């Protein structure tokens, strides 16, 4: 009986020792894990890595001392870092974007949400409450909230809500000289609002863009032009509009191209891009040299005689891609409009015109 009792106590002592050792090992492992996490995430990230191993971080400054940093290597990750204090201001952010007009607020993303922070202090000014958001421009920023596109001020207050959704085809929403291009995604047409939210151009256009300070609009394949103050410069009747330093060139549906001043007055009624001479085969042959031409693989037995046609062909480029041709006499007078995709001289005063293969004379009359 004594031996059995001793055995029970002895077994209990062994079990207790095993439990004690296991608990000690578990505590040790937890201590190592917590200590390692503290060292890696606090000590290394805040002191050792910035001081000695800055090469593992790429950075882009959003102000003089605040930078958006991303980690190279397998772990990745990004953060907001204050170089002046050596502190990490925010971790695990996806991206930060600043505005072109140096606004104090920058938009940032974390997870599936967007918010705004002060790029000089790193402080979050407008919390992560938007599904999509864009940078501030001229004091306002566009953001998507509850499925609607709204414009907010620096406090996050909604100041413009036109009741439209976000157009996924547009890369951004920004005010330029007091106006912002805005459209209805379902209808696919766009217009423009001012900073009070009023439509200054109704959303009836296929596209609106800013070009050299002018507002260019497109509707049903034709273009028009408004000034910075939205005065009409060119009506929507042009096939192409190019703005140069001192003039505006516009193509027209009749394949012509004209030059305008910045008020829309015609400077040059008929703009030509180039003039070319044309030559035709006379039907005469000249004796060749008789030498072997390695390029053609034939002997030069005769040469074809060419002569200059009576008319030149001129060309215009009203669409910015295709060229159209017309006839011009030797006094520089246009005898046909630029109707054709090509003109080839087939006689002294005979011209084959495409795309219909019609033959005309120098006055534009059809020849049988």
What can you tell me about this protein's structure?
The chain is 14% helix and 46% strand. By secondary structure, it is mostly beta strands. A 4-stranded antiparallel β-sheet has the order 1-2-3-4, with helices on one face. It has a 4-stranded antiparallel β-sheet with strand order 5-6-7-8, with no helix packed on it. A 4-stranded antiparallel β-sheet has the order 9-10-11-12, with no helix packed on it. It is elongated. The model has no long low-confidence stretch (mean pLDDT 86).
- Envelope shape: elongated
The fraction of residues in strands falls at over 45%
End-to-end gap = 137 Å
Rg, alpha carbons: 38 Å
Largest sheet: 4 strands, antiparallel
Residue runs with pLDDT of under 50 for 5 or more positions: none
Give a topology summary.
Blueprint: H1 2-52, E1 57-61, E2 66-71, E3 78-82, E4 87-91, E5 95-97, E6 105-110, E7 113-118, E8 124-130, E9 132-137, E10 140-145, E11 148-152, E12 158-161, E13 175-176, E14 179-183, E15 190-194, E16 199-205, E17 207-211, E18 214-219, E19 222-226, E20 232-238, E21 240-243, E22 248-251, E23 257-260, E24 266-268, E25 274-276, E26 279-287, E27 292-293, E28 298-299, E29 302-308, E30 312-316, E31 324-328, E32 342-347, E33 350-354, E34 358-360
Antiparallel strand pairs: 1-2, 2-3, 3-4, 5-6, 6-7, 7-8, 9-10, 10-11, 11-12, 13-14, 14-15, 15-16, 17-18, 18-19, 19-20, 21-22, 22-23, 23-24, 25-30, 26-29, 27-28, 30-31, 32-33, 33-34
